[in-house]
Write a structure and sequence with these properties.
The protein has 379 residues and is an alpha+beta fold. It has 3 domains: 72 residues, ATP-grasp fold, A domain (Dna Ligase, domain 1), CATH 3.30.1490.20; 125 residues, ATP-grasp fold, B domain (D-amino Acid Aminotransferase, Chain A, domain 1), CATH 3.30.470.20; 148 residues, 3-Layer(aba) Sandwich (Rossmann fold), CATH 3.40.50.261. 39% of the residues lie in helices and 24% in strands. Strands 7, 8, 9, 10, 11 and 12 form a 6-stranded antiparallel β-sheet that branches. Strands 1-6-2-3 form a 4-stranded antiparallel β-sheet, covered by helices on one side. Helix 2 packs antiparallel against helix 3. The longest helix has 20 residues. It is elongated and about 80 Å long. The structure holds guanosine-5'-diphosphate and manganese (II) ion. The site of guanosine-5'-diphosphate has 16 residues, from strand 2 and strand 10.
Length: 379
């Protein structure tokens, strides 16, 4: 779950990371009164789940409350990387002497939180990694001991030669590690971490992603979810208790079990197709889940054909067949459906499908080849 900058800032400031005070607005007049309260020059920043807001015109300086209202007027409603800006953050402008990057991610390869820091901050860190990888330093943290003082200082001296700046940066990294572990983050990032002409080190941006698995333990964090900033299909799927990830292909997939869902996607690709989604309808059998799944998949205009791949164990294949039948009676499905099912109650399932003019395959390769061919023909 991604947080907005204004939400991430709250977590950062709670751990003591130095950041300018600020507030969030959803109208130009709110922005104006916040700017008046803060006084002086302010920065108006688009709150969307995307980086590169600066380059896209979503970060503007305003010298007066009137300018703040104008800037907010321009930014609110703007589209950045497909996302409509609904709120802006207003913070006092900082004077910047240098910009660095500090990020902390959960790294699959080392199975640990890994710090990545670079003195070349502000811009895309991906670009730095590609063009000048020597400007990035990585340190893996052993979660049993946390970030050790010498590790924090080592990272900080990679950013700054001056001892006072390095000490301040090391402290911020320790605080960032606290934010990360205390909130179950998969990512916590400060870009830019800046130095000011009077020798302070402050964070000017906050990017935080919370591991979804943490949210049951942390209902307070779950409340921060902004559904208007997420893919509508993923929001619908979460409400229907389906594990769904939207992808860019044209073969819709309805599968029971995460492992079989991955294998199905692999096979779709193997036969030259592109999956439109990952979807696990789960182990239990509930026709409603099938109805919801079909509703979500068919609302994606990219989908040209749909594959059901059901291995009946705990899942009863007749329940799935009934789900298909119910869905087809409730809303139109304009794309072809290929069903492969085998296992518990398959005789009954085949009978139900026959009743609505559908046939079921039992071979997975055959079904995948067929759905890929149908999707290709319709594309
Ligand atoms: P992002 O582009 O979406 O990551 O948005 P950022 O919050 O990182 O802002 C982009 C850039 O705007 C920063 O790298 C800074 O150069 C600039 N910026 C942000 N806040 C301030 C500020 O308070 N003062 C000044 N002078 N520049 C700022
Ligand atoms: Mn940034």
């Amino acid at each position: 779950m991604n947080l907005h900058e204004y939400q991430g800032r709250t977590l950062f400031r709670a751990e003591g990371i130095p950041m300018p005070d600020g507030d969030v607005a959803s109208t130009p007049s709110e922005a104006e009164s916040i700017a008046r309260r803060l006084g002086g020059t302010v920065v108006i920043k688009a709150q969307v789940h995307a980086g590169g807001r600066g380059k896209a015109g979503g970060v503007k300086l305003a010298r007066t409350p009137g300018e703040a209202a104008d800037a907010a007027e321009k930014i609110l409603g703007m589209t950045i990387k497909g996302l409509v800006v609904q709120r802006v953050l207003i913070v006092p402008a900082a004077e910047i002497a240098s910009e660095a990057y500090v990020g902390l991610i959960m790294d699959r390869a080392s199975q640990r939180p890994v710090f990545m820091v670079s003195p070349a901050g502000g811009i895309d860190i991906e670009e730095v990694a590609a063009k000048t990888p020597g400007k990035i330093r990585r340190v893996a943290v052993d979660p049993r001991y946390g970030l050790l003082p010498h590790q924090a200082m080592g990272l900080a001296f990679f950013l700054y030669r001056e001892v006072s700046l390095a000490r301040a940066a090391a402290r911020i990294m320790e605080q960032l590690y606290q934010v990360f572990t205390a909130n179950g983050c998969s990512l916590a990032e400060i870009n830019p971490l800046v130095t000011t002409p009077d020798g302070k080190v402050i964070a000017l941006d906050a990017k935080v992603a919370i591991d979804d698995n943490e949210l049951d333990r942390r209902p307070d964090l779950a409340l921060l979810r902004d559904e208007s900033a997420e893919a509508p299909s993923e929001v619908q799927a979460r409400r229907a208790n389906l594990t769904f990830i939207k992808l860019e292909g044209n073969v819709g997939c309805v599968v029971n079990g995460a492992g079989l869902a991955m294998a199905t996607m692999d096979l779709v690709k193997y036969y030259g197709g592109e999956p439109a989604n990952f979807l696990d309808i789960g182990g239990s059998s509930n026709p409603d889940k099938v109805v919801n799944a079909l509703r979500i998949i068919t609302s994606d205009p990219n989908v040209k054909a749909i594959l059901f791949n059901i291995f009946g164990g705990i899942t009863r294949t007749d329940d799935v067949a009934n789900g298909i039948k119910t869905a087809l009676s409730q809303f139109p499905v304009k794309v072809p459906i290929v069903v492969r099912l085998t296992g518990t109650n398959e005789v009954e399932a085949v009978e139900i499908l026959r009743g609505i003019g559908m046939t079921a395959l039992s071979d997975m390769d055959e079904a995948v080849q067929k759905v890929v061919a149908l999707a290709r023909k319709a594309a």
